[in-house]
């Protein structure tokens, strides 16, 4: 018992650092929406600064200047502390001003990637400047032990914990009672609100960043005497800190700090148990604590990070569809073959490394570029493949090519485990899980001498096929062409497969999930399954790459698959262009140990700077070139292609009655066959009974009951705030509603949106939620996910649909380039592609002028004539009164009138709802 | 008397080349209330956002007290005296009523107590978090927060959204009396047309981004057909509606 107590108390030291870093994370997130992965690295830098100041030297981070500047004698504790914290605050302000302010309207994921870039830079810079020999710092807090009930507990940990708790109390009071604190909380909730109150979210963020880095710095300084200063360890402290912040939902400081302490203590206890309990793995159990905590917490609570009510403008990089797979593949094969043949020795080795890194890069393209999940675990997953390969070939004697495939499968299993929390959460928490997993794998397996083949590393049997030696060779024979071609063949197969993935249904589903999970669910896509598949495929490919890397290095060591290495690789892939196959391939050329790296190192001797440049480039890429190098090049080519002469486009055609429209009866017949369901007119197809939606104290929808018959166009109108979109949300499953909703014979209330889609209820969204990267055809095809296999609209049916809606000559253009009116039509077409029985249209005429609006009305009439029942919300009265058979009027969440258009137009209750008080009043006064 | 707020040829929108509001000009004297009316999608909110600096104008200019102001900067606009009450109110739901008001305090502006005098109901709910207030109380708080900033120009977007007419009828006169007390020029975007016209001095109707009618509020109030036409379209059938 006393043993446990000692270890738990020891854990307070690390726990205090995690708590401090957790506080810093909460502050930067709340004020600027950045999950700052660089927090640990910043703490490290400040700790180093303090350490050097105590020796009388000022650390200079700028390359080219002397490492330290002599300040005369050593500094005392308080002056050193004061200056270090000042430098920390200045660093925070600088980071915000230079790096994070320019990306303030970027999505949180992009901001996190920027912070990853900063982490790499700070870390690599420190390693460059001070080397990797540990720097020891004199004790700050009283050392010596405290007697507690017969056990001796080190005092400094306890003091550290007390200090951090005191700091937390001060900060909580600060944020609750000072103007600065109030303003911070206010701006975190609503950026628009802050702006209209005359607050400056910018200045608030600046203040918070300075404070945050000072707090992180303080944590780093106080732990420095206890944990020796070594670059990598402090940076990775951010992982338990992230876990603590997640528990506190990135808002609650007290909870975060408590969680930080708990993690520290548990880790310490785990380390103790590792040594005493026989069946515990020899290492890695401490790293399991944050991973298990994050996984458990997220799966159980399953909420995404709080949205900050901030104004987000830009989007992630586009993922253009490959126009042609054959030609680039042939060119690539030719170039690589030439490269292999003309080089020799270490240059050929570099080419081979590039090929292998490209395979791993492609795994990132699938998980991040297509499915939008930022995974930092691809290199560690490759490590799983590599270490498994070692076991399979050496211990079990499994031959090539079965062994690498099995190794890849093993990686896939682990990859799916990472993907499981993605079922419940989206966005950054998934990234945190991948990072925690990377560290866990590194310590429980790769660095575990029981499992990793001991100090010499894990050996791998050289590959051979039918007697042909495919290994990389050794000595004068190194590297052998046969192996080079093995890598090339693997890369080509993987690249082509992933390009085909992009152009297929699964790829479209992934991109849809990446763009907007809500809309994807409404289109009938099983978002969870799609994400899991992305992780599985990505992990398999990474495992394959890892196996190749194992063959290439012939010895598998932990260093090649480390967490930090994985983060650096992620940066490289992002810079190369994570949304394109060509980007994945390019990342191999750029990666550490690859061709470009070796060339630049030979010519300029700058291997040390590689990580720094990588970090800087990553930041710049996110800010300016989200598609990376490959994407920007692709875009430039696309623009050049667009300059070529093209047939001129027709403007929106004039409504029927002019010469332009082709014979309509034909197309009507086709549309009828396309969309009709065999149900007699007049049957009730959709009902709602007593449907209500409340948000807190506010009733958005109260007791709404309505019936929609087959073949009707029903208009749903009402003043702003009446609850029209809420009604559509309730019917389609996007709002928590009470009451009954029936579609045909099925009760659908309580079903998730994609299930309702599959049963035949389709909808559009006010903001359209189209996938700008995808073409018109691809966007509409996403809608076919709702129909079952036999029922699915095939290419011919879609062509018919395009012709009727006048989209046929634009079917393969990216949606981002269409006019507003055409975009609305694409949105409608997507909702129709699954052959729904009822389609709910939310403001389809938004942004259209009167001509386009009438044109849309005609198209919708044709759709109805073909057998699809339509419920339409819109503000364009001319459209609604002209088009609809029946109109339902909402006001303040209740139905106030239903009837034919002419009845509604003159209904006094309706007029009063729109124009406000009494028409009666004016009449009475006359 | 110099107009407090002058718009000259103002065009506004969310993307370059796509103006939702075209060539709007008007002048508003201190203490005058203008009702900005029109059907949804007409551009009323876009216009207010542009005046408040949350959007950059696509053309034209805005003058405050006769001098042009720098556009596209919401904080600057607010500090200069153009204060917006957004249609979603944008309250700080986790902060109490008092805290919401305190944050908006300005030098030379009213105190929290003075603003609560305009809204006695809020006085009873001082320590309640804004998220827990009823719809009407939230609107009062949003207005109060704007009052705290001693605005020269008060822009109110859809005060009546989601509120019962009785509540709206009690709030509009408060806006009027604030305008009278402080000489603030007010632009009221309002769907409840008759209530707005009863409070306003002058009315402007926006349709498809352009001003179609402008004149004294009393005139438009006496001509209901003109307004119904603007909101509900002509009774004779949409096909012949004049755009």
Element layout with pairings:
The complex is a heterodimer of chains A (926) and B (243).
Chain A: H1 2-32, H2 39-54, E1 57-59, E2 68-70, H3 77-100, H4 108-130, E3 145-148, E4 151-154, H5 155-177, H6 179-189, H7 191-196, H8 201-223, H9 231-236, H10 238-247, H11 253-276, H12 285-301, H13 326-342, H14 345-370, H15 378-395, H16 402-419, H17 428-446, E5 458-459, E6 464-465, E7 468-469, H18 481-503, H19 505-515, H20 517-522, H21 527-553, E8 555-556, H22 563-577, H23 581-590, H24 595-604, H25 610-624, H26 628-643, H27 664-675, E9 684-695, E10 698-709, E11 713-717, H28 724-732, E12 738-743, E13 746-747, H29 753-759, E14 761-763, H30 776-783, H31 795-804, H32 820-832, E15 838-842, H33 850-865, E16 869-873, H34 877-883, E17 886-891, E18 894-899, H35 901-905, H36 908-915, H37 919-925
Helix pairs in contact in A: 1-5, 1-8, 1-10, 1-11, 2-3, 2-4, 2-8, 3-8, 4-22, 4-25, 5-6, 5-11, 6-8, 10-11, 10-12, 10-17, 11-12, 12-17, 13-18, 14-18, 14-21, 14-22, 14-23, 14-24, 15-16, 15-17, 15-21, 16-21, 18-19, 19-21, 19-30, 22-23, 22-25, 22-26, 27-31, 30-32
Chain B: E1 5-12, E2 21-28, E3 33-37, H1 44-51, E4 59-64, E5 67-68, H2 74-80, E6 82-85, H3 97-103, H4 112-118, H5 120-123, H6 135-148, E7 153-157, H7 165-182, E8 185-189, H8 193-199, E9 202-207, E10 210-216, H9 217-221, H10 224-232
Parallel strand pairs in B: 3-8, 3-9, 6-7, 7-8
Antiparallel strand pairs in B: 1-2, 1-4, 4-5, 9-10
Description:
The complex is a heterodimer of chains A (about 950) and B (about 240). Chain A is built from 37 helices and 18 strands. By secondary structure, chain A is of the alpha/beta class. In chain A, the strands form six sheets. In chain A, strands 14-15-16-11-17-18 form a six-stranded mixed sheet, with helices on both faces. In chain A, strands 10-9-12-13 form a four-stranded antiparallel sheet, covered by helices on one side. In chain A, strands 1-2 form a two-stranded antiparallel sheet. In chain B, the strands form two sheets. Chain B has a six-stranded mixed sheet, with helices on both faces. Chain B has a four-stranded antiparallel sheet with strand order 2-1-4-5. In chain B, helix 4 crosses helix 6 (about 135-150). Mean pLDDT of chain B is about 85; it is low at about 235-243. Classes of the chains: A alpha/beta (about 950), B alpha/beta (about 240). Chains A and B meet through helix 6, helix 7, helix 34, helix 36 and helix 37 of A and helix 2, strand 6, helix 3, helix 6 and helix 7 of B.
